[in-house]
Automatic annotation (TrEMBL):
A Pfam family annotated for this UniProt entry: HisG
Organism: Sphingomonas lycopersici
UniProt-recorded name of the protein: ATP phosphoribosyltransferase
Family named by the database record: Belongs to the ATP phosphoribosyltransferase family. Short subfamily.
Pathway: Amino-acid biosynthesis; L-histidine biosynthesis; L-histidine from 5-phospho-alpha-D-ribose 1-diphosphate: step 1/9
Protein task: Catalyzes the condensation of ATP and 5-phosphoribose 1-diphosphate to form N'-(5'-phosphoribosyl)-ATP (PR-ATP). Has a crucial role in the pathway because the rate of histidine biosynthesis seems to be controlled primarily by regulation of HisG enzymatic activity.
Length: 216
């Protein structure tokens, strides 16, 4: 029996946007896949040689980079943070649109001048992207790594600034923060394990199916 092609899909907010895209690419998973309450992690599809796994957004890149999954759907924020050389990201899936930005309390922003920064302390889930961004303009960034709820850091004195994803801006607003600088625009990408692309029949046609699904 040939080994199945495994596609890693993030649970959470991208899942609902990914389902119609998967369908347009001809990949129809069993019903439990779209059910956030299901505790299953591996799911069959109507195509016998393709199965899906549902993992955390940051772990999609890890599964695909190590060849445990051959393809995956992952935010460009995650790709920028990890920069895995084993990952090829051939298709912008045009879902999961947001931006990675620097934010700080509104009252601080009113008297702050980013041009005057020489050293900043920042709470973020993205320490590498943050350090690189600041280093490019000669600012040293001291990052406090958090995995969520970055918006709490300024009011609780953990760090005066945060680097986090922003979409509607509602989370920042409800926590008294304002966006002071955009670091990068984010969307989800199809990622492929480079070795699998060369050695596993069926991977390249899937990439083409996703490309057509985005254009449809
Ligand atoms: N507000 C948003 N709008 C649009 N896309 C977003 C938004 N927030 C996150 N994303 C995208 O979705 C991906 C997953 O984000 P999500 O918030 O679901 O992860 P998470 O809840 O932090 O994950 P986990 O619980 O696994 O740590 C991000 O990497 C990003 O590409
Ligand atoms: O600008 P907004 O539309 O408010 O979106 C921004 C929020 O979305 C993401 O978190 P998410 O809601 O995915 O929850 P998380 O804390 O689990 O990452 C991000 O980390 C922000 O907190």
């Amino acid at each position: 029996m040939t080994e199945k092609i495994v596609i890693a899909v993030p649970k959470g907010r991208i899942l609902s946007e990914a389902l119609p895209l998967l369908a347009r690419a001809g990949i129809v998973p069993e019903a439990a896949f779209g059910d956030e309450d299901s505790r299953a992690l591996r799911f069959a599809t109507q195509t016998p040689e393709i199965e899906l796994i549902r993992v955390r957004a940051f772990d999609v890149a890890t599964f695909v980079a190590h060849g445990a999954a051959q393809l995956g759907i992952v935010g460009s924020d995650v790709l920028a943070e990890f920069a895995y050389s084993e990952l090829y990201a051939p298709v912008d899936l045009a879902i999961g649109h947001c931006r990675l930005s620097i934010a700080e309390p509104a009252e601080m922003a009113a008297r702050d001048d980013p041009r005057g920064w020489s050293h900043v302390r920042v709470a973020t889930k993205y320490p590498h992207v943050t350090e690189e961004h600041f280093a490019r303009r000669g600012v040293q960034a001291e990052c406090i790594k958090l995995n969520g709820a970055m918006e709490l850091a300024p009011t609780l004195g953990l760090a005066p600034r945060i680097v986090d994803l922003v979409s509607s801006g509602r989370t920042l607003k409800e926590n008294g923060l304002v966006e002071v600088e955009r670091i990068m625009d984010v969307s989800s990408r199809l990622v492929v394990n480079r070795a699998a692309m060369k050695t596993r029949a069926g991977v390249v046609p899937l990439v083409e199916a996703f490309r057509r699904a985005v254009e449809a």
